[in-house]
Amino acid sequence: QVHLVESGGGLVQAGGSLRLSCAASGRTFSSDGMGWFRQAPGKEREFVAAINWSGDITYYADSVKGRFTISRDNAKNTVYLQMNSVKPEDTAVYYCAAAFATRWATRGGQRSSTYEYWGQGTQVTVSS
């Protein structure tokens, strides 16, 4: 019903920057809260950042606060994750996820169980 495609991943040196994009289709994008999650090899999936339908509420994991910025452009049906001052521990597959606005607001944008739809992921590798 909702198709999400991540892009922008790749290899980046520690201290550098990278911007991930997530393009959505299939229903009204502006009705969804969005989230970014990541999973490193041998580790469980973890929350990174989330943004509500209108873009005026955001959440960040403590590990990325001050370095990463989530944003959205509803006219382009796209959510972004700007990654600055990246560290080797940021290396992971990054996933975009979507949930209807009411579900996002009541269940919490930081919880993976909130989200109904997930992208295929994009690999981010940070070299030291």
Which terms would index this structure?
1 helix, globular, 5% helix, 128 residues, 11 strands, mainly beta
Report on the biggest sheet: 7 strands, mixed
User: Can you write the helix and strand succession as a string?
Assistant: EEEEEEEEEHEE
Uncertain stretches: none
Structural class: mainly beta
Question: Explain this structure to me?
Answer:
The protein is globular and about 40 Å long. It is mainly beta. The strands form 2 sheets. Strands 2, 4, 5, 6, 9, 10 and 11 form a 7-stranded mixed beta sheet that branches. The mean pLDDT is 96. The relative contact order is 0.31. The N and C termini lie far apart (40 Å). The protein has one helix at residues 101-107, and strands at 3-7, 10-13, 18-25, 32-39, 46-51, 58-60, 68-73, 78-83, 92-100, 117-118, 122-127.
Give a nutshell description of this structure.
This protein has 128 residues and is mostly beta strands. 5% of the residues lie in helices and 49% in strands.
